Amino acid sequence: MSDTVAAELDGPVHLAVDLGASSGRVIAGGLRDGKIHLTEIWRFENQPVRMQQDLLWNHLGLWQNITHGLRLAADRIANIPGANIESVGVDTWGVDFGLLDDRNQLVGPVRCYRDPRNQGQLQAALKKVSREEIFAETGLQFMEINTLYQLLAAAQAGDVGYRNATSLVMMADLFHWMLSGERTIEATNASTSQLLSPVNGTWSTKLLDAFNLPAAWFPPPTPAGTKIGVVQKSVAEVTGLHDVPVVVPATHDTASAVLSVPASEFAPARPDWCYISSGTWSLMGVELPEPKITPLCAELNFTNEGGVHGSTRLLKNIGGLWVFQQIRAALQRRGTAPSWAEMVEQAALAPAFSLLVNPDDGALLAPTDMIDEIGALAERTGQPVPTDNGVLFRAALEGLALRYRHTLGSLERLTESSISTIHIVGGGSLNELLCQMTADACNRTVVAGPVEATAIGNVVMQMIGTGHLHLIEEARELIRKSFPTKTYTPQNTHVWDEPAARFATL
Question: Is 253 known to be catalytic?
Fold first, then answer.
């Protein structure tokens, strides 16, 4: 690995800690020969832990892996002539958080957004403040996983940590606090909370007051690209990162991924391209110069999340590859463990449209066993219960492509524009069957890649924060030069019409 690092990096190196809902990585990124190069230093698993009825994140295990990865990076890069670590930053998923007290201690566990105790909190909130008022204040889609409803669940449960807290930090900010000792809430992740105004970027006093949330927990959001401090002494002794600046990237992983889309325009008013950040979740949307707080947006339940440099990510959360992943997990528990490639091969050979599965069906959010739940869903919707694994695999992918098709139509209605290109970034861009299904179902050109979208966006924002890049357009031009993409053109699009009509009734 050290030889690879030496071959690919010299000069300023930026360390991206990229945490997803199923895995994490420490990645070193920098320029060589006018292109961005990334080297994976350390990879580790990330799975929520079920304890009694609760679903928690193993934040201490994550921290242990992060510091181990940073130690490896410091040791290896120290041996490369001319290379130096210039900054470090963390990105994670949205909505989850930790609570800190006045003794600078983390109080209570760090809960996963799939924690079952959140159920019912959305409806409880709407009894206090109307749906229309909450949307007018935040522009965010209504999902029970949002920070607001998690906080209401904590208050209802009488959590000791909730009572003793003096500040809140979103998930990436929790690790920035561990790195630097500084308490911040980065703006793109703050925008996932359903407590932030997308218009002025400040916390909604109306909602904080209505739900008895302490305003002191919510400092002004920190813009992406801000240097918040340096790696504190206790961490430097463990990692070897002495006096290294902590520069917050766009800490919401989708915001970092969207930054890496190899498009030519930044936040056009009438977009002709959209993105899908494809992983455990699929985030499908457009990049706009300002939010759309409209009745149609509320009706379609789209969200206005913060992007870099004041842009808005108008998007829809879609269940993503979660169903596909959890089918495999259920098979592993049954004693078989097909590879991802084998699953795609079997899906390609299975009969088309023999089972339609909506990835956003509520029953699929956190089932005990995904295969059993899909069987129950099939019975509930009058479809044959699958007995072939290939049918299961194909249904998970076709369901995603059909969901993309529906979402594309809504995006065009919202933006009053015609979208000709779909950019798929992230791990899902490697799934060639899904990419072709998306092109066919949507009847649009699909450009797949870059794969390491979130890590690229993290590194690029650190480069902007340290003055090595200045404009988003400049960063995207560099990304286009640095990473390959693959184009998929629509084929046999008409065969998707009848399944799309059936899918709409699910």
Answer: yes
